[in-house]
Amino acid sequence: MIRASSFFLACFCLLASAAPAYEWRQWRGPNGNGVAEASARPPLNWSESENVKWKAAIPGRGHSSPIVVGDLVIVTTATDRAQMVVAVDRSNGSLRWQTTVHEGGLPAKKHRKNTDASPTPASDGSSLFVAFHNGKGIQLTALDLEGGVLWQREAGPFVCDYGFGYAASPVLHGDLLITAAEFTEAGWLAAFRKQDGAPVWRTPRRIKTSYSSPIVARVAGREQVLLSGGFRVSGFDPADGRPLWEVESALSATGGTLVWSEDTVFSSGGFPDRETLAIRAGESAEIIWKENDKSYEQSLLYHDGHLYAFNDNGIALCWDAASGEEKWKVRLGGPVSSSPVLAGGRIYAMNERGITYVYRPSPGAFEKLAENQLGEEGFATPVFVGEEIFLRTATLAGGRQEWLYCLTGDGEETVAGP
Question: DSSP class of residue 11?
């Protein structure tokens, strides 16, 4: 009996050690909705001298969020001449590898708040997938976890009608890598086989340029690719790109990724008009409420029957998701590009000045819990895994420098170079 117990204990320990660590493999997190895993226990407070586990210098400039895969934290970035993928060690922030994906070919024009490395990478746990606007199109690249290039292909053309650049992050669904590039002349939503980049399906999206990332969600009992822009909000079949439903919207261009509840999709944007929509997306889609408010660059956040926003001007809002009734509206401080995230029972929302506000997801009243600052510039949405936050900011004094922080409650700090 003792030997049997020891055997089963050894097997349990072996299985536990082989289990994957908590990860954050794509834009908007494990479920694509800006909600961290239930295991997340991030710190409430931090500063340059408090709760910083490590700090790593990132070369160049980029607005992509980090992803966390195994023992790696990965971001994309760009210099004046190259677009790169950078991986640092999750335990101490030291550089593990840096791969230049494109040398030259960077777009000549983009919005002052955009970068040549704004889309967030995606991973299936064994490979990485990145999208860059380079040359005359959107280039997809697959890499292994050592930084080696597995395959590369042009997903399709892209010419921004406004000259503002590209922003859409790719998303994985089974064996498919799905991405989009929306513009008047020849816009598209398309899927590629993740093993080799072979095209699987393509759906036209010839609309005035929009910037939202597609996301795959289970809504009204079926998997759907959700996407807004071009005066419409739409759902597509992820297997073949076939349109499932569509409703009219007042929004030509959007930047946020759609969020959802069981049978309802929520959209927001601010060009040319302000609008926040709730759409019942069953067999026949219908708008169930709309409000004259906007989250143009940011994604919304759905939690427990309520919809939360941290909009362009730094105003935090809460609506009843079923009726659209405004529960509260509070000015915190903007401008804002990053999206709010729910982690550890709190909402974390960062503005472009590097200030992160932490407050309760409570419809009864707004309750701020903390206000923390790192750096002088913050565009990338923070990532929450276990007891850690991975935060990308920049300092401006003495020349702009980007930093990737690992924040935790242990209070230890190390600094790693690029």
Answer: H
The span from the CA of 253 to the CA of 250, in Å, is 9
Match 């340059």 to its residue by tokens: 48
Angle at 232 between CA 255 and CA 178, to 5 degrees: 60
Q: Classify 313 in phi/psi space as left (phi over 0), alpha (psi -120 to 50) or beta.
A: alpha
Q: What percent of the chain has pLDDT over 70?
A: 93
CA distance readout (Å), 368 to 106, 224, 328, 362, 374:
42, 35, 13, 10, 18
Residue 46 pLDDT exceeds 50? yes
Token pair for 63:
């607005």
**Residue 174 vs residues 124, 171, 240: alpha-carbon distances, Å:** 9, 10, 13
Max CA pair span of the chain = 73
**In this predicted model, what pLDDT tens digit does every residue of 124-183 receive, in sequence order?**
999 999 999 999 999 999 999 999 999 999 999 999 999 999 999 999 999 999 999 999
Burial (CB count <10 Å: 0-12, 13-18, 19+), residue 289: middle
Residue 250 and residue 294 in contact, taking contact as beta carbons nearer than 8 Å: no
394 has pLDDT over 60: yes
Q: Which two tokens stand for residue 261?
A: 């509840």
At residue 415, the pLDDT reads: 52
Amino acid in position 231 = F
Domains of the chain by start residue, with CATH: 38-61+305-411 (2.40.128.630), 64-211 (2.40.128.630), 213-296 (2.40.10.480)
Helix, strand, or coil (residue 18) = helix
User: Please, what is the Cα angle at 237 between 252 and 246, to 5 degrees?
Assistant: 35
Q: Is the dihedral of CA 149, 23, 82, 177 positive or negative?
A: positive
Full-model pTM? 0.93
Tell me the DSSP string of 190-251. EEEETTT--EEEEEE--SS-B-PPPEEEEETTEEEEEEE-SSEEEEE-TTT--EEEEEE-SE
Q: Per the structure block, which two tokens stand in for 226?
A: 């959700």
218, HSE (Cβ side, Cα atoms, 13 Å): 2
Q: Please, which pLDDT band fits residue 282 given cuts at 50, 70 and 90?
A: confident
- Assign 4 a pLDDT band (cuts: 50, 70, 90): very low
Per-residue pLDDT, 73: 98
